[in-house]
Amino acid sequence: MKARADRRRLGRRSMLLGFALATLAALWLADLRLLAPDPWQTLGRIGTGLLSPSFADLPALAEAAALTLAFAFCGVFGGAAAGLVLAPFYHLRPLRHLCIAVRAIHELFWALLLMQVTGLSPLTGVLAIGLPYAGIFAKVFAEYLEEADPAAARALPRGSPRLSALVFARLPLALREMRSYVLYRLECGLRSSAVLGFIGLPTLGFLLESYFRQAHYGEAAAVLAVFLALILPLRLWMRWPLVPVYVAVSAWLLSRVETPPTGAGVLWRFVTHDIVPAPLRSGGWATLTGWLDFAGWLWRLGVEQIAPGVWTTMILSQVALALAALIAVVGFPLIVPRVTGRAGALAGHALLVLGRSIPEYMLAFILLQLFGPSMLPAILALAVHNGAIMAHLMGRQAEGLCADLRPDAPRGSVLWGYELLPRQFASFLALCLYRWEIIVRDSAIFGLIGVATLGFHVDAAIQTLRIDRAVALLLAMGGLTLAIDTLSTHLRRRMRLAHAPGAKQVLHEE
């Protein structure tokens, strides 16, 4: 047993050393330049606007806020319904791989792809949220059902149908955890819904981008204030008996949005022509020459776009993960009363809630105005958002640890450095590995603001109507996400991090 524990400690130290070396290499390769001409002047103007928000265009704000809620409710609860139907069959390998594939692509890219078929319509936004969320819900709901106490199912009469065992024995036991997870995903869905405005859908993100591009920072501050007013008290105004009303009103609001026509036969053209690689169109798939041309097409795409995009994505995500880990270590004691006091813990909670509530893409867009189109805005946005989530989870665990301490135990920084941090080290490593795959997935979206990740090439391909290239790049993105997830899972199992105290609670915080 001692030898096994020593090997585990050695493995964790080796992982930390490898992580540190990878971070140093990524810092050396990352583009962290300040490319804005006068960042301090811009910061002053933005700061003035944030301190004096302007609600002059209140009707537009109200409409965008209502549609942000509508997209989120329809997308999240549509995804939850689909995930609940798929969950009992998640053990089937083809279905599991399909769910992994749909959730590996960010909502923004789903929206860009779907716009080629459904246009700039409400259906685009609902599907862009609902499709990846269906894959996530299927996985999480399947795990909740699997972990339910089997005693209730065994109490049913022998020969009872599987559906009866599921509905009357397992589902009631898992319902509480499912509802809690849906509530968490609704918070994520609100962030996703707001961000969809950056590609033209009429949510709060659309107004924010418009005001920033016109340097109307007071109006932009009002948009941020309205968004925070929606998401921060979510657990207060969200009532489960009202969910059918919320969804029905949301569907009615979306049905009233004017949608530009897309033309007849667009779906058929998309499936039979647009997504087919160019060398295989017009009968090329039936000839050897067509397949040879396809091999050359794929090779050039891999060398010119996929490989550089993956390289940039990994550099950006590595620096962001390291900074997020630092924020988590420094930030989690801020919400522990025995470290910062009651007033300090309240302020710490407010700070972390603010950090994790603002969507990464929205924060990166704001920072882009200050620093210019380098990697810096994306790194800071990812680090702040993910670091706040990690700090919040570690802080909750630390509060539980403090409940078991003696009244005369140390307080303040001594308690943090000598008691809480060492006892949470294993769960901290697990958290970093859990968030790694998410950060890599989200890094791609910053290609839409000019960072040369895989998302940059996806956006360029869609803008030039080379949908076949966009699909190939999205498949590469999904493959990268799957590879990181597989490596993360392997490392957690090898070092038994999944069994660390407190690590289980973060498994589904994806």
TrEMBL record:
It is a multi-pass membrane protein. InterPro entries: MetI-like_sf. The chain crosses the membrane at residues 64-87, 108-131, 189-208, 220-238, 284-303, 315-336, 361-384, 438-458, 470-487. Coiled coil: none annotated. This is Phosphonate transport system permease protein. The keyword Hydrolase does not apply. Keywords: Cell membrane, Membrane, Transmembrane, Transmembrane helix, Transport. One of its GO terms (cellular component) is plasma membrane. It is found in: Cell membrane.
